[in-house]
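2024-03-11 09:14:02 INFO worker-7 job=invfold-0412 stage=load source=structure_tokens
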């Protein structure tokens, strides 16, 4: 009887039910261009077994100057369409914040930030060099009660396994992009993604879906051996 329940629980663990990184709100960033495109992508997520999608538009002070109210309003519009079309999936909204002085100031000044789950704060950095304010930002964010989540660490040119370990030691959670596992962004990024999985340093998996091409990359990754290895990790997705 004990072994039966163990097998059942192991089987449940193999499924990914919640996506927590995507760009599905039209007009806010470089993601979908229309509500219709968003609905089609969400249908695809549902067909893959997802029951919840947490979409995360970019917030960048010099490019995508989105405010929480804008994002939540757009999410409400999309939710209405999903209900009209009887698509049984939960849509929530947070944001993917770009780490700059503006974000650092918002944290220290306790401005309203869009988070998901139990105060998880998704952020990204520039792709080329480690931001000089990174360590201070992490400390301040954690002090303010946030749980910082670094989006797609495998994609940063400055990232090494040593830096990834240091970030985790400082309390940062790491979110891997699923398309990275099928070479969508190139072989070096795929290699780093696999290394992070093998080290057991992946806390969340996200689609980072902007369009149908990326959605198809997610679908193809579901058959990938490294994706299956990632599902054996204590991922946070299904608890969101």
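2024-03-11 09:14:09 INFO worker-7 stage=emit residues=240
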């Amino acid at each position: 009887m004990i072994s039966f329940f163990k097998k059942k629980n192991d089987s449940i663990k193999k499924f990914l039910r919640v996506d927590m990184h995507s760009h599905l709100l039209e007009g806010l960033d470089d993601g979908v261009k229309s509500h219709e495109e968003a609905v089609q992508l969400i249908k695809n997520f549902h067909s893959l077994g997802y029951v919840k999608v947490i979409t995360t538009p970019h917030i960048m002070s010099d490019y995508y100057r989105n405010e929480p109210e804008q994002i939540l309003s757009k999410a409400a519009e999309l939710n209405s369409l999903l209900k009209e079309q009887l698509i049984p999936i939960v849509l929530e909204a947070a944001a993917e914040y770009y780490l700059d002085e503006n974000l650092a100031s918002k944290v220290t000044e306790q401005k309203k930030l869009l988070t998901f789950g139990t105060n998880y704060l998704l952020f990204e950095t520039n792709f080329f060099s480690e931001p000089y304010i990174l360590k201070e930002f992490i400390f301040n964010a954690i002090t303010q009660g946030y749980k910082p989540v670094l989006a797609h660490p495998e994609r940063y040119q400055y990232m090494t396994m040593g830096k990834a370990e240091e970030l985790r030691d400082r309390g940062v959670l790491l979110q891997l992009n699923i398309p990275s596992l099928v070479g969508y962004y190139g072989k070096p990024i795929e290699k780093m993604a696999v290394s992070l999985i093998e080290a057991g340093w992946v806390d969340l998996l996200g689609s980072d879906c902007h369009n149908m091409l990326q959605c198809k990359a997610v679908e193809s990754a579901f058959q990938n051996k490294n994706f299956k290895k990632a599902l054996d990790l204590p991922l946070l997705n299904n608890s969101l």
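2024-03-11 09:14:09 INFO worker-7 stage=report msg="The chain is about 40% helix and 15% strand."
2024-03-11 09:14:10 INFO worker-7 job finished
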